[in-house]
């Protein structure tokens, strides 16, 4: 065997295991997709839930979709979801805010993850702190959210600013957007870990999936 | 002036500003405590809520308590709370788990913060993964929690293990416990940021206050 | 000889050399102060200008003042100035903004440096982005400044926010305020170097002297 | 929407927002250029000013120019400017000095930025400190400048040397020129942050745009 | 000469030198393979033992096999062995455990190395701590092993968990699997160096060869 | 409770848990020692084995000895062992080699740990590679060992040299001996992880305890 | 102008400036080669000396040779020399030792540089410390050298070992050979900086040119 | 035994071993001094040469001097030499240049080492590049030297500048003078490793001893 997919995770944790495509050989990835397909189709009374394939390259996505009819691919977010349709939303709203246009792929990964895990979710882009009026125009949306995901590269300053305005928990996602001393996302990672407003926690650089998952968990009971 | 205390934070965000004692001169700290005391006592209809003074040295704590009669000092957690009594708990339970005995100060800072922010909260210590039976004996307590704080130094492995067992969101607090390649907490920080189970987000090294605050926000609506 | 003080610097650059006390033995520091005193007193027609002794410990400051009657010591900024009186201000205004109370020593070092180099200068403290109303209340002061120094530790986010509001050049001074992943000031240093608003440049961690000097140069011709 | 261009920035800050091309998808970049073109053409009485597109690849530049007739592309500096003509210069002179031939792209990015923001600007190349006579031959040019940009990789030593000779503020731009322990520009970045002459501040590695912008701000009032 | 192959190593140390293909030019690699072939074939009474070529690209492997008839190439492990057949196993069992599917290449490199050095060896994949039941199902296999190799990227937590269950020595192999704050394997490297259970030592990131070698040495006398 | 001592570790893993004194409050440490004493004394038929207290300061050691009569303190190795006598040795020999005199405390921690875990063990000091004759004079001792611990700071070169001469597994212990670019032990840590001879694995900086433990495990079956 | 070649360097320092090709555009490189050619050919009585073009890609080398008839290209060392013939050697011998086959390009760059600067020079390859007999067989050659260059990646241990045997100065050149925790040459760089034998100094990672230059200077007067 | 002093080093390498006091216990240091004294006094025909004890604290120096009558202690350089008198100088001159007053202890360690190893040596202080006239006034002294040691903290720029002026080899010694982004000497270390003038090699941060030793070796044959 080349994988031991954790089919019990949805029962144990509430949400199924996702497959990180990056770093897997095509052969291994296809074998995993096949095993999921077999189990999923045989799974009358004990549904697996939506399985996400994350950080999928174009060719990986194509191979997964070929193995799992009905799967849907979002090339910007690099996600394949099977089955494709987003479930009926329940719980509180997840709000995804991103600082710049280049952060959209990660922000969208968070958005789709939260939606596939069952939450209503919204995305607002390009509200970085260099033009503060843009985020200040969103205070009502911020106040209405049950969980907020802030996606930003470079200085990562948006996380602190949003946390200072919000009641809801803030999950910071530093991105690798930037160059030089951005250090592939270490600069916003450190900045967010040191947010001067409490109520912020941070996930790995570019980890939109992890942020969307956590936001969905937080908003579930709202 | 030497400070512009954010008295509006409770109204805006739901929880009042805390005072980080570390790095402040005694003179500045006392002035801030005095201003809080004056405002608090004059604040009949619009209560400030409990003000926390965090990372207080013994002498700082003494000075704050002298300024604010009724304040309570926890020397292990290095917290002073004013007014001292913990409010009546509401919302879901915050569970604080820590890997080793040396992590207790940070874990206790998280515990007290969550309690002062109004949540029921419990602390379980010394359940590191070197003896896995210890955390496995807690699965019921883990299942019952609305938010979980995992406090660990060295390898930080407990965060991944707990997240793999839990439905609730997990907040990882890496600690500076350890030596050498623990790099003052960078090792568990990186480990937790790369948790192989989703549903984990991380706060700054030794930041029990931030973790307790976020856990209280998450558990508020449970 | 143990020093070759650059007495020509004021003629060459417009401002005299300062003495960095930190790292010097008492014997060496006193010898330098003595040489400056001798030269300064014999310097009828070609004044040295005010000589600053920076990052002076209490005992270093005392020794310098003993050597140079008329010198003035600011223990918060850790600066000794000789001669003591601040010169008549000219040029545009230098505005020093700092994020938190613990940043005051560095902010004050910038303020006094700018004043001793001949500029009108103002200090505003504790306007960190966790309570954005505090900095928004200062937009007029920001608009009136010819050079702005932003002093902040932790996330260093204030630099980006201020630059997004200001016409004047912004000099960021990251401070070592914070703990853990603040990495003794590397976190705000990286954050400020990646400010999402242009018009920001950065000096060394805790280098209030350098920021005040540069701000004075910028505001000179305003 | 995929962007919220900050059209008010010129009014608020004196200079318009620039577009960082790197990291944006072609689709997103074209959409932004289109929106700018529409607003700019409809903007009779309230001109946008020159919009810069920075760090543009060849194909990105081509797409932007197709969208914005009249735009001009400098392939060395990787800048597209729209409208293309450099405005009539006013204010003091910006002097851009670079240590080696390989630093020219970044130096030229600073030069063009300062010119498009309205300053007279000059570029002097290959005056690194290994042959000190080259920079010493430029003391008059240095004395005449209102703001100096020093672009250097490897040891970054030129910034300290120039600051020791100049009255004007010095902005250091570390470059990623070099290999091995140059650490992609971290070595000159650290060197410049520790310049032994005061009056130096530093922008991000390879950030010619930021340096040119700041220099233009400084020289505006000279 | 371009190489001085250490033909005495098997006599001196018990195991022959291996050839690290990565970083060698094709010309140099082929010359080394040729020299080994010549010596090996002439080596009646003093056998070289199996020579491993590690981290071989596809084209390097092809060239080595062309030079050494009878060599066998494993493209997943990137190993070429000459002569190809695995020797008769002796000594205790080497157990290789890996956390995820993407760690298989490194795990397989360890497995094949241990087998070619003469040990019985087994591979168990995808038993990461996010689904703890998977490793708990292997306690008997763990108890039976004489040396255990744990291969994991991201949080590297599996090493601590296995060491907490095992009597045998554990060799940790951090992998470069992961992204962002995984820092190309530094995160699991640090995590494993700080394993909270004693009995763990660590080899270089992705160094399956080194781990398999050491495990074979340890298990030799069991 | 403040600790959950893993009394089952000896049964599960072969060796009992040790107590890391560093980072524990005196009150917590004494409580743990007391609990061990109570359990140990009541443990007629199921002996705990020797319990080690590692990295104990002088005052911590004194407090532990007061709680556990019969305990023995080695102030150089900073170890307290209870009960004190070293058990009758069995298994192969553990050889501890150290590069310089300043490495002795860590080397001795490894030596005593191996002896208390039941192995015959020897210590050879000051055989660093600057005088290669010193280690070459030990080849017989190296050949006779079942497990070798190499303790070195600064360049850590001794680990590679010894591994190139030895049949037995080598465990490298980088130490914090050195200054400047030794980076508190990171330099020898990296050096040992990149040992050009296979058969080396590495433990944490200054972790003599971990190395001695692993060596004892390896040598047990020799 | 795009370059200000330091034609006076040979007169001032004894050796002419070299051209670092890496990082230069083809256009700039060709212009520099042309200027050198013009000056060199017109330079009857005041010869430039041999000009080296270092770190030249295949196409850069071709372009330089086209511009400078008589130039010689060494593709392994990535050097172009003009004029091509090595001068008559004088002074003491430079000995270049390298640890492994993959270090040959850098070692050869040092060798050719020393030869072109006028020294007799020898290269010995693959004498890494994993097989100590190889370097011990060279003690006479080591004793005869006036300057020794040690080229090694991974653990960099060869520098310490050679310095412990040699009278002559040792120049360490860490290489980027290795993977993972070799950190692109930082591991051997740190190791060599901490050499436990005095008489070692270090140049940049992969900087064979710098090492050969310095060795030539040292051996000049022997 | 606690040490194996390398009494053969002078015969083998030309200069005796030195004792690094830092990190040694008082007991160990005294034992080493005693052994050296015994050997030295019994060493009629085969003199040890001057033994240096480096980085000695005040109390360590006192203990060494008590053990070795005739030893001389320099408290600034932190060196004890036995026997005390500097030998008759031979060979070329070693020139030690330092950038600032705070670098004197390290510079003096280099100076005394070179003198005790038999070279004529000179020290010039406070010639940092912020006032370039200071170093330019020393070009004759620079031209006369056989080996040059440059000691500088902060930007480390002096090494490049001196190398650009000198014929002799330059040894850079970065110092830990500075604060913040000086990173305890890493900034000047990196700067010097990337010196834009060839002919520079670098020793460890604050390693005046190593630089003086190497300079003495280089100048020996001049
Ligand atoms: N222990 C702590 N760790 C991190 N942030 C804190 C801590 N305690 C208080 N804070 C936050 O730090 C800020 C206080 O900064 P200051 O204005 O310097 O008192 C407030 O926004 C607090 O919410
Ligand atoms: N606080 C400071 N931070 C950075 N540089 C400083 C500071 N104070 C003075 N300096 C500069 O440091 C140099 C003094 O170095 P030294 O010769 O050691 O006194 C002068 O060029 C000063 O302008
Ligand atoms: N010197 C040491 N270095 C690393 N780990 C240790 C050391 N001493 C004890 N340990 C381990 O650290 C853990 C003790 O953590 P704690 O529960 O805080 O006492 C145990 O699992 C020990 O096996
Ligand atoms: N200040 C110093 N910096 C670096 N190495 C030194 C220093 N002083 C002595 N050494 C070397 O360090 C080694 C001494 O190590 P040890 O055996 O611990 O005394 C010898 O090889 C010395 O040549
Ligand atoms: Mg934008
Ligand atoms: Mg424990
Ligand atoms: Mg505040
Ligand atoms: Mg040049
Ligand atoms: Mg898996
Ligand atoms: Mg020694
Ligand atoms: Mg080899
Ligand atoms: Mg000075």
- Strand percent estimate of chain A: 15-25%
**What name is given to the CATH topology of the largest domain in chain A?**
Rossmann fold
Inertia-based shape of chain A: globular
Stretches of chain A where pLDDT falls below 50 for ≥5 residues?
none
Mean pLDDT of chain A: 96
Number of helices of chain A: 9
- Taking the alpha carbons of the first and last residues of chain A, their distance comes to 41 Å
> What CATH architecture label of the largest domain in chain A applies?
3-Layer(aba) Sandwich
Q: What is the topology, as strand order, of the major beta sheet of chain A?
A: 6-5-7-8-9
Ligands present: adenosine monophosphate, magnesium ion
Q: What string gives the helices and strands of chain A in order?
A: HEHEHEEEHEHHEHEHEH
Oligomer: homooctamer
- What's the number of domains of chain A? 2
Q: Largest interface here, residues on each chain?
A: A-C, 35 and 35 residues
**Helix residue percentage of chain A:** 25-40%
Largest sheet of chain A: 5 strands, parallel
Radius of gyration of chain A: 18 Å
Number of E strands of chain A = 9
Structural class of chain A: alpha/beta
Question: What's the short version?
Answer:
The structure is a homooctamer of 222-residue chains. Chain A has 222 residues and is an alpha/beta fold.
């Amino acid at each position: 065997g080349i994988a031991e997919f954790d089919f019990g995770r949805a029962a144990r944790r509430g949400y199924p295991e996702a497959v990180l495509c990056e770093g897997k050989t095509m052969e291994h990835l296809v074998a995993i997709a096949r095993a999921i397909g077999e189990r999923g189709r045989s799974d009358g009374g004990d549904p697996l839930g939506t399985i996400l394939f994350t950080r999928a390259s174009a060719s990986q996505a194509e191979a997964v979709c070929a193995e799992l009819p009905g799967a849907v691919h979002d090339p910007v977010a690099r996600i394949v979801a099977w089955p494709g349709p987003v479930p009926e939303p329940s719980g509180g709203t997840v709000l995804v805010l991103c600082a710049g246009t280049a952060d959209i792929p990660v922000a969208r990964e968070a958005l789709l993850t939260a939606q596939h895990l069952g939450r209503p979710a919204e995305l607002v882009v390009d509200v970085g702190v260099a033009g503060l009026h843009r985020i200040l125009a969103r205070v009502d949306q911020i106040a209405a959210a049950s969980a907020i995901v802030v996606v930003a590269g470079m200085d990562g300053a948006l996380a602190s600013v949003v946390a200072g305005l919000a009641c809801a928990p803030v999950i910071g996602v530093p991105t690798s957007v930037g160059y030089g001393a951005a250090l592939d996302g270490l600069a916003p990672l450190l900045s967010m870990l040191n947010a001067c407003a409490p109520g912020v926690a941070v996930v790995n650089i570019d980890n939109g999936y992890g942020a969307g998952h956590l936001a969905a968990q937080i908003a579930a009971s709202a």
